[in-house]
Amino acid sequence: MKKKVLALFFVFVVGFARADEGMWLMYLLGDPVYNEMVKRGLKLSKEQLYSLNKSSLKDAIIIFGGGCTGEIVSKEGLIFTNHHCGYGAIAAASSVEKNYLKNGFWAKSKSEEIPAPGLSVQFLVRIDDVTKDVETALQGLGGADRAAKLQSTSTEIARKATEGTNLEARVMPFFRNNQYLLFVYERYRDIRLVGTPPESIGKFGGDTDNWEWPRHTGDFSVFRVYTNKEGKAAEYAADNVPLKPKYYLNVSTKGVKDGDFSMILGYPGSTSRYETSYGVQIKTEIENPAIVYLRDVRLRMMLVEMKKSDAVRLQLSSSYAGIANYWKFFDGERKQLLKYDVYGQKKTEEEKFAKWAIGKPEYEGLFEKFDATYKAWWPYAKHRTYINEGIMGSPLISYAVSLQALERALTKKTPSEDEIKKVLESATRTRGIFLTNENKPSDQNILAATCKMFYHGIDPSQHPTEFYTKLKATYGDLHEDAPYLKYAADVFSKTMIFDDARWNAFVSRPDSTTLQNDPAYQYATAFIKNYMKYQPKSIEFTNQNNELSRIYMKGILEMNKGKALYPDANFTMRLSYGNVKSYRPRDAVSYDFVCTMRGVMEKYVPGDYEFDLPKDLIEAVNKKDYGVYKDARTNDLVVGFITTNDITGGNSGSPVLNANGELIGLAFDGNYEALSHKIAFDKDLNRTICVDIRYVLWCIDKLGGAKNIIAELTLK
Fold this sequence. Notes:
Low-confidence stretches: 1-18
Shape: globular
Radius of gyration: 26 Å
Number of helices: 27
Helix content: 40-55%
Largest sheet: 11 strands, antiparallel
Number of strands: 20
Distance between the termini: 38 Å
Structural class: alpha+beta
Number of domains: 3
Mean pLDDT: 94
């Protein structure tokens, strides 16, 4: 089956043209792509990159958690990944007394390593081409029927592929549902925290420097994979042993030069490089502005409280980081899409396609159908965003929405006591998690603010029936802040969700009336049930757009037969290659390919939320105690470097490798000038921001004193 995969993809890679663009399926590299990598400097064979029968580079690359990449760097299962990827586990291991986020942590022996419950990593085992099986099942279907059948067929294929094993499998679509591959993984669940720098290093620069170069962030953390004594994946146990990996990465301390070959392996999350002009327009005019507007308010409310105490900062840190990371991205993406007229570029491509499609019934008139589909959805697109990013942006309301399952169980004509009991147990369990993470002052302000934003931002014809009319009658002029603040205060003070006595009384004698009269639940359902009137339009739009996009992509493949085309990212293992490279983003501005400790100290602001530094770092810098990690060219400690590699979200933590396949850094960010990269790759301005491995080693060695970790690595 694997040979069939190779044959299918060779169709799309002949006639390859030189470019840094492309997130390539490394195990399906055609000769033109591989040969170009060799010309650029690669010293490894194809089999060293990916082998079906022997250990190879791909065996060191892991899915870390649910949305990042990591790499194995020792014969005892040591993992390097980004600090922001390990952030949740680091926060969970921390307390006010042992605040590893604030102060850092370094295990000086394996016995000191901290279990990370809920964290897992996945190794890729194999891939199979299942296109024929899927297409046979989908034959003659379209729209919602096709989507439903695809889901059930994919589930069944994955089940059969892993039956009787401890493996997991997922069927993934490629080229917008024109091809399907089955990915089989082995998941390891005993993961332990080995080390992390203080967040003043791991998050240095905060939101201000996010997506910016130069970037002086030590974005790394260290974990380890454990197995049972037989070397098999297992749940946590005190007597588990470190993993003996099939392959691990050597680490280079040589440093980088401008023009050096660079290669990144990892799991890029999603791109839409084949998006239509209609998709670009709705992003720039509706979706991105709404997301940025709503997230900005939530972040401001949270930050006010986080600055008040370490306890609140620790409580909200993980949630805040997740919201903030893509707040700036969505803002920058919109600006870059507009600046470089990506809409116009897409229109030009579509005009060429339309001319090619003349006389081809399957493709002729395709854009008229796209136009009709988007026009029908346009009036409701903002509503969906305001629900997801606004109303549901309140943690209290997000939890209250989950209680709809309980209402359904309680209001059935013949209620099932067993079902009600199970739903109540689930609701009580998730309530406990919610209360642990909840910061009432910030959440109360978020509810008030987003309620007002919905009122002013969404067409009145789409408002919940009578909700705002009653709000005005009770609390006053809805153009002022005060009514929303008073309403939010009432919701928070009167809901049973925060009151253990009332909650326990409800659980002991549950009834639908009590639930329906709860103010938090009333607020949540007023908006969610109102949105249910518009959800069919969302489903119809999604199904129609997916089907039209599938046909468009099929046509693109036919029209470009013989040219190199890579599939959009979909969180499957990919390879990108390029070079370490400086750049000039605008007139009279030139950026070097590295940034150094000198820049860290220039940004240092004592006590600042984003630019403070730990005392031991300052002392080491004052002594110029850089040891073997000092860079000869700059006579300084290099903190980060940039490359032309093509990456996106999900590549966080990915290894950056030199021509010999040795680790030289960890990818963790992109540059602001190329934030349109999910839709349009900029061959001149695109840069990947990487933390230099020498800075990582220096932090571990000189600041952490964890020479045991350094000794475990194979340094070149």
